[in-house]
Amino acid sequence: MSMRSERVGEQLKKELSEIINQKMKNPNIGFVTVTEVEVTGDLSQATVYVTVLGEEKERQKSLEALEKSKGFMRSEIAHRMDLRIVPELKFQYDESIDYGNKIERMIADLNKGH
User: Fold this and answer.
1) CA 18 from chain center: how many Å?
2) CA atoms of 94 and 37, how far apart (whole Å)
3) How do residues 7-63 score in pLDDT, each as one tens digit?
4) Looking at beta carbons, which pairs linking 25-30 to residues 24 or more positions away fall under 8 Å?
5) What is the pLDDT at residue 92?
6) Does residue 75 contact residue 15 with C-beta atoms inside 8 Å?
7) Largest CA distance in the chain
């Protein structure tokens, strides 16, 4: 990623976190945290990595609700950021936290055995 796309990604992360947690009124959106935003070099697309507190069912409901709210979020971003083109948003569940928790549990289990 270029320096500009990294800066835009960081700003998008901040703005999207605020929009999701304060402006969204959809009851299907659970406790969502934006962990990372990757923006393409031409700033036309952004992959938004999120974590959702809860089980698989809550995760799916929250991701579906985020997908349906893309238009609202893009219009909010257009008002908040000075961009010629507001990137298309693609939401993806960030599995890195689950993976880290799994590794932590495995290490704890190994330590119990010794």
Assistant:
1) 11
2) 11
3) 999 999 999 999 999 998 888 888 899 999 999 999 999 999 999 888 889 889 999
4) 26/65, 26/68, 26/69, 28/61, 28/62, 28/64, 28/65, 29/62, 29/65, 29/66, 29/69, 30/54, 30/58, 30/59, 30/61, 30/62
5) 93
6) no
7) 59
Cα–Cα distance measured from residue 110 to residue 68, given in angstroms and rounded to the nearest whole number: 43
CA 60 – CA 112 distance, rounded (Å):
34
SS (HEC) of 38-93 = EECCCCCEEEEEEEECCCHHHHHHHHHHHHHCHHHHHHHHHHHCCCCCCCEEEEEE
Distance CA 70, CA 76 (A): 10
SS3 113: helix
Antiparallel, parallel or unpaired: β 32-39 and 88-93: unpaired
Strand partners, 95: none
With contact defined as beta carbons under 8 Å apart, do 44 and 90 qualify?
Answer: no
